[in-house]
Specification:
10-stranded mixed beta sheet, alpha/beta, Adenylosuccinate Synthetase, subunit A, domain 2, 433 residues, single chain, Adenylosuccinate Synthetase, Chain A, domain 1, 3 domains, 3-stranded antiparallel beta sheet, Adenylosuccinate Synthetase, Chain A, domain 3
Length: 433
């Protein structure tokens, strides 16, 4: 069996939840390696809709272990609420779920600090979800954070009081100390600890032991590569390593144990929040994409910015991740368009470039250069065989493959598990064999 990373090739919301859920039946465990409850993965099973924020999508498959890795930041209240919701739907969560004792813990004061710091000093707001993710990662990097191992420890009070004192000072400086009940938080988190203790463990040892036993792991990324703290459109990024490298640092599984890396991309592209977006369409066509694709955040409900497939962007994310194969989702959303533009290059300072600039100014100065392909104006919804696609839809997929240099191994034509096709003989098919 093989160990495979599945991650977003754009700015998130590419449909990874469905893909991980679909693939998970072939794996023994699904491991989430970064992010927090700011990223929602939506999975449809029959007429039931599941929005998973922290728990890996594999939990919906009986017998598949769901692992929250050390690279994830965990809000205990959000985690327990998600567990409760899944159990109410008949999912046996606690027998399948394990959480790293090295994962860092989000507290209510992290949310308060994020709200007062967003857009401070005249800076453009990043567009965070205000769930305390960034401030928790800040504490982690500053070596003052509290981990799950600390939360379930008898000395938790001492560690908490030291961190709370630091946050109290910040809250007082911004005149919001009255918003934070530091004493009440301590008592609530002691109660959370009792519920989390049975599922907390050294997940790095657990995953590596499974690999030694010949079992297979599917690594699930949150957000997308263009939101990665190092390789995304900085500073309009998340606070964690969303790229493939994060799968190793966020779980403790070494790179030598990874057999394949699969990128997930929409047939077009979306983004939530502020930041450069070269191929964004602000015309009626962009609104048509939003309506047809129901492009609203699964966690926040915010409308997503919509645009056209960006080839230089995809080439860039393929390079930094090393994609073996690409999965194209939501092909059916393009069914109603007479023409489908594809961004194939950029114009920057009157020069044609095919690489993404690193600087914020460079990204904002980009003008997209498009090639326009004819639309197919036929329904592709639910098609599960490549040969059954309209010829122009096939041409579109072949064009993307040719321009990006990455094989298209699978195409999704709807939200259901079975509304997916695989390309015979592809690297992806071999990875999942």
């Amino acid at each position: 069996m093989r160990n495979v990373i599945v991650l977003g090739a754009q700015w998130g919301d590419e449909g990874k939840g469905k893909i991980v859920d679909l693939f998970s039946e072939k794996f023994d465990a699904v491991a989430r390696y970064q992010g927090g409850h700011n990223a929602g993965h939506t999975v449809f099973i029959g007429d039931r809709k599941f929005v998973l924020k922290l728990i890996p999508s594999g939990v919906l498959r009986p017998g598949v272990l769901a692992v929250i890795g050390n690279g994830v930041v965990v809000d205990p209240a959000a985690l327990l609420e998600e567990i409760s919701g899944l159990e109410a739907a008949g999912i046996d969560v606690k027998s399948q779920l394990r959480i790293s004792n090295r994962a860092h813990v989000i507290f209510p004061f992290h949310r308060t600090i994020e709200k007062i710091s967003e857009g401070r000093d005249g800076r453009t707001p990043i567009g965070t979800t205000s769930r305390g993710i960034g401030p928790c990662y800040e504490d982690k990097i500053a070596r003052r954070g509290i981990r799950i191992a600390d939360l379930v420890d008898v000395d938790f009070r001492q560690l908490y009081c030291a961190l709370a004192e630091d946050k109290q000072t910040i809250a007082e400086a911004f005149h919001v100390a009255d918003r934070v009940d530091f004493g009440g938080i301590l008592e609530r988190y002691r109660q959370y600890a009792e519920q989390i203790r049975p599922i907390a463990c050294d997940t790095a040892s657990l995953l590596n032991r499974m690999i030694r036993e010949g079992k297979s792991i599917l690594f699930e990324g949150a957000q997308g590569t263009m939101l990665d703290i190092d390789f995304g459109t900085y500073p309009f990024v998340t606070s964690s390593s969303a790229a493939a490298g994060g799968a190793c640092t966020g779980t403790g599984v070494p790179p030598t144990k990874i057999d394949g890396i699969v990128g997930v991309s929409k047939a077009y592209i979306t983004r939530v929040g502020a930041g450069a977006f070269p191929s964004e369409d602000l015309t009626e066509s962009g609104e048509q994409l939003r309506k047809a694709g129901n492009e609203y955040g699964s966690v926040t409900g915010r409308p997503r910015r919509c645009g056209w497939f960006d080839v230089p962007l995809l080439r860039y994310t393929a390079e930094v991740n090393g994609f073996d194969s690409l999965i194209i989702t939501k092909l059916d959303i393009l069914d109603g368009f007479d023409e489908v533009p594809v961004c194939v290059a950029y114009e920057v300072d009157s020069k044609v470039v095919t690489q993404m600039p690193a600087s914020t100014r460079g990204m904002e100065a980009i003008k997209p250069i498009y090639e326009t392909l004819p639309g197919w104006k036929q329904s592709t919804h639910g098609i599960t065989r490549f040969d059954d696609l309209p010829d122009r839809a096939k041409r579109y997929l072949e064009f993307l493959e040719q321009k990006t240099g990455v094989e298209v191994g699978s195409v999704s034509t709807g939200p259901e598990r079975n509304e997916t096709m695989f390309v015979r003989g592809s690297k992806l098919e071999k990875l999942l064999a």
